[in-house]
Amino acid sequence: MNTQASRGDIAAFDVARIRAGFPILSRQVHGKPLVYFDNANTSQKPIEVIDTVDRFYRETNANVARAVHSLGEAATSAYEGARDKIARFINAPTRDEVIFTSGTTQAMNTVAYSYAMPRLQPGDEILVTTMEHHANIVPWQLVAARTGAKVIAAPITQSGELIVEEFIARLNPRVKLAGVTHVSNVLGTINPIRELAKACRARGIPPGEAPVVPDREGVPAFPRAEPSDRGRRAAARPPRPDLEPPHAPRGEPYAMSDCGRVAPISP
Q1: Could you tell me what percentage of the chain is helix, strand and coil, using 3-state DSSP and rounding each to the nearest 5?
Q2: Nearest by Cα to 29 from 49, 10, 48, 44
Q3: Residue 187: how many other CB atoms lie within 10 Å
Q4: What digits encode the pLDDT tens for the residues 67-116?
Q5: I want to staple 234 with a disulfide (CB 3.0 to 4.6 A). Which of 41, 155, 219, 222 is the partner?
Q6: Is residue 48 within 8 Å of 55, Cβ to Cβ?
Q7: Are residues 57 and 110 in the same domain?
Q8: Residues 66 and 114 both lie in one domain
Q9: Is the pLDDT of residue 264 over 80?
Q10: Do 180 and 210 contact (CB within 8 A), yes or no?
């Protein structure tokens, strides 16, 4: 399987050193050292993040970009400095391509409502996979219901791997957007995101979870540890005036990852 690491990778991965950097992993649960796998829901924080958040609240806590006093300027400087660091980390051409949101679900909804919904027409398709998290299914189902589009899913094998040729075969002219996870939080599958993105772009289809800049395998939306509890998404290009306001229509809440709201999707 493509989820297996090489022996060299395993040898270079110092588990004890990494665990030591996360204070919560020093506790025991049911008499055994804590092993935590629910990172896709809530990630545990290393001591550097905990100390930084603590220092922010002790020394700098103020509104970002909305206050001109000393604390406000310091908070804004730190906040925008984080945007610059992320832009460098993912090799984004400009800092404007890094957009902060309240979390992953809002990030997906922002793309769904501001980019996809104004462009979708009856008969259009949104391609996902059967291994996707609800946050990468429900928003597309809601905008598809409003526009007459259809959400389709590429199949996976019995061992939980994406059938790449089936995904690519479904990239027909009706597909206007494709969304695929880089690493499945349920299966642990690592998808060949660069190959999938290349296939999408060759057909003029925006890849929703694909690499947006060179030299990074994938740039997904994910929550980051920050006092305002914001998430981040790397935009495919700087914000454009032709995009709709990034919020759900009045009276309609954002799609949440609620099992009861997920409708079946077509293969």
Answers
A1: 35, 15, 50
A2: 44
A3: 16
A4: 889 999 999 999 999 999 999 998 888 888 888 887 777 888 888 898 88
A5: 219
A6: no
A7: no
A8: no
A9: no
A10: yes
